[in-house]
Design a protein that fits this description.
This protein is mainly alpha-helical. The protein is 73% helix and 0% strand. The chain has a single domain, classed as Ribonuclease III domain (Ribonuclease iii, N-terminal Endonuclease Domain, Chain A). α4 packs across α5, α4 crosses α9 and α8 crosses α9. The radius of gyration is 16 Å and the shape is globular. It comes from Adonisia turfae CCMR0082.
Length: 153
């Protein structure tokens, strides 16, 4: 699926070296790609469950960050948070890091790996993988680094 060099390059672009690189691979792997690997007799987990966890972790961190940046009403926090975590914002972040999901052959042929939804879902899954591997403070620091420039705008 990915060489050790490719995995390391992604870690460097993320700014985090995984203790368990399997978590990163799972976060990058879409369901169709995992199914293809399982059909070949290989064990392979997909990102689906990580997307849910990553979404929740991201919401908590962004809410806290917005409060720290001076957003003081529920409405202002919600409005800005929704803007930050929308599909276009998350997919743009992965594009800037030059990270794409691992997709199935059929998905690749129709360009799923370049679509905003797939990239946004992969971003959420990566957030979950880092959270599981390094804990809350690590992912919080990374999210602050990634999103602070967007909040300042």
């Amino acid at each position: 699926m990915m060489t050790p060099e490719e995995i390391r390059a992604i870690e460097i672009r993320l700014g985090y070296l995984f203790l368990d690189q399997g978590l990163l691979l799972q976060a990058l792997t879409r369901k169709a790609a995992a199914q293809e690997q399982r059909q070949k007799g290989k064990q392979c987990e997909d990102q689906e469950i990580f997307r849910t966890l990553g979404d929740a972790v991201l919401k908590a961190i962004l809410t806290d960050l917005l409060i720290q940046k001076g957003y003081s009403t529920r409405g202002s926090i919600t409005q800005k948070k929704e803007k930050l975590e929308k599909e276009e914002s998350l997919s743009a972040m992965l594009r800037a890091m030059e990270i794409t999901p691992i997709v199935g052959i059929g998905e690749r042929s129709i360009g799923v790996h370049e679509q905003s939804l797939a990239l946004a879902e992969t971003f959420e899954a990566i957030v979950a993988a880092i959270y599981k591997d390094g804990g809350y403070e690590i992912i919080k620091n990374l999210v602050v680094k990634w999103f602070s420039p967007l909040i300042e705008q």
